[in-house]
Amino acid sequence: MARKKKIEMEIINYDAAGIDVGSRSHFVAVGQSLEDVKEFGVYAEDLVDLCEWLLSYGITSVAMESTGDYWQNLFVELQKHEIEVILCNGKFTKNAKGKKTDVKDSRWIQKLHSLGLLTSSFLPDETTEILRTYCRQRTNWLELAASASRKMQKYLKFLNFRLDVVVNDVCGLTGLKIIEDICIGNLDPYSLAEHRHYNCRKPKEEIAKALHGNNRKDYLFGLKQEFDSYKYFQRKIKACDREIEKLIKKEIRNNPDKHKLKTTDKPYKRKNKNAIDIKDFNQIAFQYFGGVDLMAIEGVGHATVMAIMSEIGIDGFKKFKSAKEFSSWLRLAPNNKISGGKILSNRIPKGSNRLKIALRHSANAIGNLKDTHLSDFFKRIAFRKGRQSAVSATARKLGVIIWTMITKKLPYKPQKEYLFLDQKRKQIAQLRRKIAKFDINPDELGIFSRPEYEAKYQSKLNIVNQGVT
After folding, report:
1. Distance between CA 245 and CA 309 in Å, rounded?
2. For residues 360 and 391, is the Cβ–Cβ distance under 8 A?
């Protein structure tokens, strides 16, 4: 009869606990027996009791799943009691055998954590987390403002005011003044056309022609309400901008060395109307990152730099040991699935975070540039695999560049300019025409295709020099 073998694993974390986080209660396990599991509520006093119960068992480290938003208050309370917290992704703890229960889940998490099989998710520092709250709230207001803008366009079409035909942006300088005048009660198309901004391509006559409407009261009422909502959302966005600017400048003032740093102006960086309204953002970003000029990278603008500040921060880059690890966290590195020595799939993993989306937007903008290092890289990938793959590859390259610049405090230095074969041929043809035009001997340029040609040229030169002497 075959004897059963038992494989034992080494315990890494002896004083470890596991918590199954819930919306109404938390189940905490300090061991594998049923007596080692206890249920706690979600109120403030329940969380304090939970931490004190863990400390009574000598627990120093706790693992729990990042379930929705229910973990955040518990996470803060555990940190207050100086208990190490491992916040892990739910996909690493979901393979418990048998029927799923809260008690079994907490024991399974405790077992995995004690064996050292769980890794913590990325969590930013406190300043970055506060900045992230402001920026995400600002994004929510931007989405609501965009929704109000679409509804305003809908009511304008119902009123037969074809403002969208004569102006590029209904919420631009010309459009907003016309809508505001309509909401006040001015429905004369010729007086409305007087609000035309000098940058508008269409003449006043055509704008007036597009503003002959049916003047229905119900549609005017709807337009006025959406316009009021749009103005309200814009005030909220500006309030978020003020809080963000205040926090960033406070962080810079805390480090006097950063306040002395100065960088070159970049007037060529176009500022989107939805970009954060901070004066001299280029200088502030340079000081915030301690002398690293991220705006020097082509395609990287205000929105991308703000996403880096709020989503990961300066200290966040130090948590990644290499640029490969950082690009993997961004889900921009290929996920190779190998079986039998063959690569079955190398697709990029699903899922996006806000930083990945920002880098992809920058990569897409790089694809529209000309004669830059990154745009040439983009076009080479796009020629072979298409634009979608080129966006992902360029976003990964941007992530590697940004990680290297911030962690190693290096300036942005693009590699030697890449030239396509037809570009090389054109430049060679131009050089040949200039050589023929000025009757230049190629040997005089010091360019020799063979060593014997150089030796022959040197001997002729020596003869000439001897004749002169």
Report:
1. 12
2. yes
Burial of 466 (0-12, 13-18, 19+ CB in 10 A): exposed
Model pTM score: 0.80
Neighbours of 375 (CB within 10 A): 19
Structure token pair of residue 301: 């603008």
Return d(Cα 331, Cα 279) in angstroms, integer. Answer: 33
Distance CA 251, CA 387 (A): 39
Picking from 353, 367, 420, the residue whose alpha carbon sits closest to that of residue 397 is 367
**All domains of the chain in start order, with CATH:** 16-114 (3.30.420.10), 128-249 (1.10.287), 284-408 (no CATH), 427-468 (no CATH)
**pLDDT tens string for the chain (469 positions)?**
456 666 677 888 889 999 999 989 999 999 988 889 999 999 999 999 999 999 999 999 999 988 788 898 999 999 999 999 999 888 778 777 777 888 999 999 999 999 988 888 888 888 999 999 999 999 999 999 999 999 999 999 999 999 989 998 899 889 999 999 999 999 999 999 999 988 888 899 999 999 998 989 999 999 999 999 999 999 999 999 999 999 999 999 988 888 888 888 888 888 888 888 888 899 999 999 989 999 999 989 999 999 999 999 888 998 999 999 999 999 998 888 888 778 878 788 887 889 999 999 999 999 998 888 899 899 999 998 899 999 999 999 999 999 999 999 999 988 755 556 666 778 888 887 887 787 776 666 666 666 776 777 777 767 766 665 5
Q: Which of 197, 272, 274 is nearest to 234 (CA)?
A: 274
3-class state of residue 10 by DSSP: coil
CB 106 within 8 A of CB 28: yes
